[in-house]
Amino acid sequence: MTTEAAAGDLAIGLDFGGSGIKGAVVDVLTGQLVGDRLRVPTPRPSVPRDVVAVIDGLVQQLVAPWAPSEGDAFPVGVGIPAAIRDGTTLTAANIDSAWIGFPAEREMARVMHRTVAVGNDADVAGLAEMRFGAGRGQAGLVVMLTIGTGMGSALFIDGRLVPNTELGHLELKGRDAEDRVAESARDRFGLNWRDWAAGFDDYLHVLERLFWPDLFIFGGGASKRADNYLPYLTVKTPIAIATFRNNAGIVGGALIAHERR
């Protein structure tokens, strides 16, 4: 397969979530997906060995259209729902607890025989939005929220990432915030959009009081249905919907992979 982008400007971005793993080849100069976006279910249980095997298979599918001389050189970047330091996952949100303390970057590189970079999934998605999307050129404090199976967060100050913030785990009315306001909570409690938005609005007010952000960016699965809840939000902070919607993690994964190249 050929593309207008040079092979050296292409990388694979993967977004590993509690329900699915999705990925694509990305042109890192534009943030555009090249070829098909693929998605596979997250293994149950989501233990590292099984997830890494699935990721390896997904990467092989993604590079299949390219000549080996091109595809074999693509680096891989993976967003993982965990706090990460030096390539090791330190927590496990909505994935198996076996990820805690797992040397994810090293093991993925060993299995896939290619350069691999890993990052917190919300941080990775936020990097894409700050580079190419809704946060591009935004000064001050930006809070990116990925609203899906969990509630991920990424914090940027004048475009610089503050990693592993995990603001989805702030306490909200005596419970972990994401238990109340992740998109999965709307389904779990059988809430209509207005009722779900009331709880989400409470959460945003907490963030507003703590951080006084200049911009909220909403990504994740719920970003595709923002019109269903935006009218019910009352925070004063400006809100933007992620330009890449649910693909922000894929684009950001490719960016961190390319930087590791």
Helix content: 25-40%
In which order are the strands of the major sheet placed? Answer: 3-2-1-4-7
Largest beta-sheet characterization: 5 strands, mixed
**Beta strands, count:** 14
Q: List the uncertain runs.
A: none
Taking Cα atoms only, what radius of gyration do you get, to the nearest Å? 18 Å
Number of helices: 8
Structural class based on helices, strands and sheet pairing: alpha/beta
User: What overall geometry do the principal axes of the alpha carbons give?
Assistant: globular
Task: Measure the end-to-end span.
Answer: 21 Å
Strand fraction equals: 25-35%
User: What is the H-and-E element order?
Assistant: EEEHHEEEHEHEEEEEHHHEEH
**Overall mean confidence score, pLDDT:** 95
Question: What is this structure's SSE topology?
Answer:
Elements: E1 10-16, E2 20-27, E3 32-41, H1 48-63, H2 68-71, E4 76-80, E5 84-85, E6 88-89, H3 104-112, E7 116-120, H4 121-132, E8 141-147, E9 151-157, E10 160-162, E11 171-172, E12 175-176, H5 177-181, H6 183-188, H7 193-211, E13 215-219, E14 239-241, H8 248-260
Parallel strand pairs: 1-4, 4-7, 8-13, 13-14
Antiparallel strand pairs: 1-2, 2-3, 5-6, 8-9, 9-10, 11-12
Helix pairs in contact: 1-3, 4-8
